[in-house]
């Protein structure tokens, strides 16, 4: 069967499945959310992971919403947080916080509203995750019956990762790297394995989010040869190849896993829309970090010695040298939640995905 016909069949199956299971209701059929990814989704795991130098557990992180640092790498809520709020599920605890509490006896069970496994500095390649294996953490909890398998089947799974892998590819040190295409294919193979294992352990709904334009983050100024007056095109070319591969994975899922639904969120396209027409989306600056220092605010991490902070973070696309502001996260979340399904989120948006009823599947 040709690639075209396989993709067409996958899309038809998703549409049929959605039409069968979408229910007309004001509430959503998502009791819990399980989140996997990097610092874009990290809810504070790195506060407990002292082996990692990537930390955001100090001011002014969290200052705009929580009014104290939570370990999130932004001034407020992440995309995963907003999606939880749209659904009406309490924000998920970081895995390490829950794990430590269960281990020391201060709580008996793991949370029933889901768990956030995302960790700053992580990626999809094994060498990027030498001391933090999110998939293994999830598998252990399911295999040891510390997460109810019925809950897993009814839950929503979120995934966003790969920025660190691609950014690290352009660093001037480290081992010899393969060519760019082989590197991206190796990344996609790891994502495919993660998705496969999640479904084998009972997942039925998953959203894979594309990377944003990593070549546009202020931290690009630390890469040799990266331009300051425009995005780093070579880096974004790799990002787009990776994103295309993610979308192809989504198209394959209904065929590989009958009864399962996956969606692809085109975060890259959203951010490029913001950059092309900043004032329309409430931005006054789409190039520099609100919090940091040096060229574009990209040479000093927010909160570290010598940092400076803008007056209104909501007018900045970037909060710090690598991460979006809460305003950016909110705009992205709204588009993924209720956006037009053929453009920003496909084949269905997150609101429709959350409305799928899996009671009969369990």
List the helices and strands and how they pair.
Blueprint: H1 3-21, E1 33-37, H2 45-48, H3 79-87, E2 93-94, H4 95-104, E3 114-116, H5 134-143, H6 149-154, E4 156-160, H7 163-169, H8 180-200, E5 205-209, H9 233-256, E6 261-265, H10 267-276, E7 285-289, E8 291-292, E9 308-309, E10 316-318, H11 326-338, E11 345-346, H12 350-354
Parallel strand pairs: 1-3, 1-4, 2-3, 4-5, 5-6, 7-10
Antiparallel strand pairs: 6-11, 8-9
What does this structure look like?
The protein is an alpha/beta fold and 362 residues long. It has a single domain (3-282, 338-357), classed as 3-Layer(aba) Sandwich (Rossmann fold), CATH 3.40.50. Helix content is 38%, strand content 11%. The chain has helices at 3-21, 45-48, 79-87, 95-104, 134-143, 149-154, 163-169, 180-200, 233-256, 267-276, 326-338, 350-354, and strands at 33-37, 93-94, 114-116, 156-160, 205-209, 261-265, 285-289, 291-292, 308-309, 316-318, 345-346. The strands form 3 sheets. Strands 2-3-1-4-5-6-11 form a 7-stranded mixed sheet. Strands 7-10 form a two-stranded parallel ribbon. A two-stranded antiparallel sheet has the order 8-9. α4 links the parallel β2 and β3. α1 crosses α9 and α8 (180-200) runs parallel beside α9 (233-256). It is globular, with a radius of gyration of 20 Å. InterPro entries: GDSL (IPR001087), GDSL_Est/Lipase (IPR051058), SGNH_hydro_sf (IPR036514), SGNH_plant_lipase-like (IPR035669). Keywords: Hydrolase, Lipid degradation, Lipid metabolism. This is GDSL esterase/lipase 6. Belongs to the 'GDSL' lipolytic enzyme family.
């Amino acid at each position: 069967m040709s690639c075209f016909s396989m993709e067409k069949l996958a899309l038809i199956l998703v549409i049929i499945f959605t039409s069968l299971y979408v229910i007309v209701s004001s509430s959503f059929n998502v009791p819990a959310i399980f989140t996997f990814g990097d610092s874009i989704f990290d809810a504070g795991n790195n506060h407990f992971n002292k082996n990692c130098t990537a930390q955001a557990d100090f001011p002014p992180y969290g200052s705009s919403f929580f009014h104290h640092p939570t370990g999130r790498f932004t001034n407020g809520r992440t995309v995963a947080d907003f999606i939880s709020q749209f659904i009406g599920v309490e924000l998920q605890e970081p895995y390490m916080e829950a794990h430590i509490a269960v281990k020391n006896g201060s709580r008996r069970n793991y949370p029933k509203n889901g768990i956030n496994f995302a960790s700053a500095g992580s990626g999809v390649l094994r060498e990027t995750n030498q001391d933090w294996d999110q998939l293994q953490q999830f598998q252990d909890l399911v295999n040891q019956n510390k997460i109810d398998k019925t809950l897993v089947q009814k839950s929503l799974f979120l995934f966003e990762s790969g920025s660190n892998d691609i950014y690290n590819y352009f660093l001037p040190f480290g081992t010899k790297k393969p060519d760019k295409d082989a590197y991206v294919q190796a990344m996609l193979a790891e994502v495919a394995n993660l998705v496969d294992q999640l479904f084998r352990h009972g997942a039925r709904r998953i959203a894979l989010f594309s990377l944003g334009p990593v070549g546009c983050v202020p931290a690009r100024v630390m890469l040799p040869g990266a331009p300051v007056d425009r995005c780093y095109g070579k880096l974004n070319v790799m990002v787009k190849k990776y994103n295309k591969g993610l979308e192809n994975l989504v198209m394959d899922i209904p065929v590989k896993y009958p009864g399962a639904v996956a969606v692809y969120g085109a975060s890259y396209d959203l951010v490029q829309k913001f950059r092309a027409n900043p004032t329309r989306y409430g931005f006054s600056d789409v190039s520099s970090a609100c919090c940091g220092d040096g060229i574009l605010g990209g040479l000093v991490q927010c909160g570290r010695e010598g940092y400076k902070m803008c007056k209104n973070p909501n007018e900045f696309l970037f909060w710090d040298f690598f991460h979006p502001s809460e305003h950016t996260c909110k705009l992205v979340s709204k588009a993924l939640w209720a956006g037009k399904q053929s453009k920003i989120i496909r084949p269905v948006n997150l609101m429709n995905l959350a409305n799928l009823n899996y009671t009969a599947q369990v």
